[in-house]
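The methods section describes the discrete structure representation at length, but only in general terms. An entry of this sort, consisting of the sequence and the corresponding backbone structure tokens, reads as follows.
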Amino acid sequence: MKLSTRLALAALAATCFALPVPASAARESWRERASGDQEITLGDIAAEVAFGREISARILGRYNPYDNPALIKYVNLVGLALVRSTNRPELNFRFTVLNTSEVNAYAAPGGYVFVTLGALQLMKDESELAGVLAHEIAHITEMHVVKELKIKGTDSSITSGMAQLVGGSTESARAAFSQAVDKGLEMIFKDEYKRDNELQADKTAITISALSGYDASALAKYLDRVRAVKERAPGAVKVQAPETAQSHPSFNTRISQINEVIAKDGIDVTGLDSKQKRFVAAMKSLK
């Protein structure tokens, strides 16, 4: 990809996300977030954000952002409620909607979260939206792509490591960075997260949703609906979560685990407001 094109996409990425969402520490209780303690330097953070920004630019080069400020604001506000219950206060999370009928959501390192218009149209309420966003947030907080591709800075300087490669100081550096981004995109687009990572993201999503006051079982309800639609008309809905992929857990496995974790942890999902009216009102702004 030419530097001028890459810079243009990066600029587009910067303008397509509304309301930067700073994370904050969540309350400590039995609902503590399911993330291990990790030592992260300023250089590591800079490298992660720079890497995620480039991946986000590539995603926006593949899909057009959905031009609906009201809906983007709504999705960001739901994201804000969720991010408060994560363990990455050093990141500014950003959320946007992709204008495609595909049913999917994506997460890029550094705090970039995407949900497709097709996915939104299949949801019934705000708790389901929260469940999907929480799953993608979990991929970021658990640093699945970052760990798999070993994206790290070299010291505590914010201009170190991978962050330097974005500017393309040398041809070899630009090539190495581009190759790493290609691998990251392959993981995201082809659902090549490791099976354990995908299941961990679901577990973390349960905790994030519950901490934020949402029905933690909503993600399972949404996945069950996606599965049903796909079974009725396999070609009608493009869902990049293949049941046949050995590395990716099936819908049945994910749904069973979500329900088991909720029961085991004693998370109360009764009597919660699913915010359906607010969700329906926001969806009325669809063009």
